Amino acid sequence: QVTLKESGPVLVKPTETLALTCTVSGFSLSNPRMGVSWIRQPPGKALEWLAHIFSNDEKSYGTSLKNRLTISKDTSKSQVVLTMTNMDPVDTATYYCARIRHSGSYYFDYWGLGALVTVSS
Amino acid sequence: QSVLTQPPSVSAAPGQKVTISCSGSSSNIGNNYVSWYQQLPGTAPKLLIYDNNERPSGIPDRFSGSKSGSSATLYITGLQTGDEADYYCGTWDSSLSAGVFGGGTKLTVL
């Protein structure tokens, strides 16, 4: 059974750095056909792809947030961590991690429940 | 502004059919597979269609997809009230080297 679970702070202050952890089970982060992505959704708005990491440690970032994001993984702990610097109230959103299938295609077959992060002083 | 363009809303009566379009460019839909996601109110998105027209196990055949050029379409037949949700298309953009989504389409079953 594949599961992903996001964890991290519920509330962060402007200018602080957000660190979110995605703990996965039911598959290995070393599987070459799979990866993990972070996707966010501001309240009432659309999904926004943020970043992904593959088993070979290949990483990609969304162009608008590239300078603020870092994604990493600890395969032994089955965890993927996303850090976002210089948080702003517009970054208030539900942050999802999702498993990627990327052998020839690119789609998200399992999603976590999401973690709502509010940015406020 | 989303890279992929979807209509903000569509509606139809129970039992009817609805189509949701997703328009992109050669750098995304035109040269990559498209996936579709259903997001019921207050829940995480769920994979409906992958590789343009493939259904994961457990997804009823009322849901289907197609792709032509730089556009894709989601078809839902035999509409049910439980289908009321937001629907998103997604793909990889080879120029941006990033995943991209549409702006989402809210389906109302009248």
Question: What do you see in this structure?
Answer:
The complex is a heterodimer of chains A (121) and B (110). Chain A is mainly β. Chain A contains no helices and eleven strands. Chain A starts with a strand and ends with a strand. With 110 residues, chain B is mainly β. Helix content of chain B is 0%, strand content 45%. Chain B has strands at 9-12, 18-23, 35-39, 46-49, 63-68, 71-76, 85-93, 98-101, 105-109. In chain B, the strands form two sheets. In chain B, strands 1, 3, 4, 7, 8 and 9 form a six-stranded mixed sheet that branches. A three-stranded antiparallel sheet of chain B has the order 2-6-5, with no helix packed on it. In chain B, a hairpin with a 4-residue loop joins strand 7 and strand 8 (98-101). Chain B is globular, with a radius of gyration of 13 Å. The chains are: A mainly beta (121), B mainly beta (110). The A-B interface holds A 37, 39, 46-49, 52, 60-63, 96, 98, 101, 104-114 and B 2, 32-33, 35, 37, 44-47, 50-51, 56, 88, 90-92, 96-104.
Summarize, please:
Chain A has 121 residues and is mostly beta strands. Chain A has no helices and eleven strands.
List the helices and strands and how they pair.
The complex is a heterodimer of chains A (121) and B (110).
Chain A: E1 3-7, E2 11-12, E3 18-25, E4 34-41, E5 48-54, E6 59-61, E7 69-74, E8 79-84, E9 93-101, E10 107-111, E11 115-119
Parallel strand pairs in A: 2-11
Antiparallel strand pairs in A: 1-3, 3-8, 4-5, 4-9, 5-6, 7-8, 9-10, 9-11
Chain B: E1 9-12, E2 18-23, E3 35-39, E4 46-49, E5 63-68, E6 71-76, E7 85-93, E8 98-101, E9 105-109
Parallel strand pairs in B: 1-9
Antiparallel strand pairs in B: 2-6, 3-4, 3-7, 5-6, 7-8, 7-9
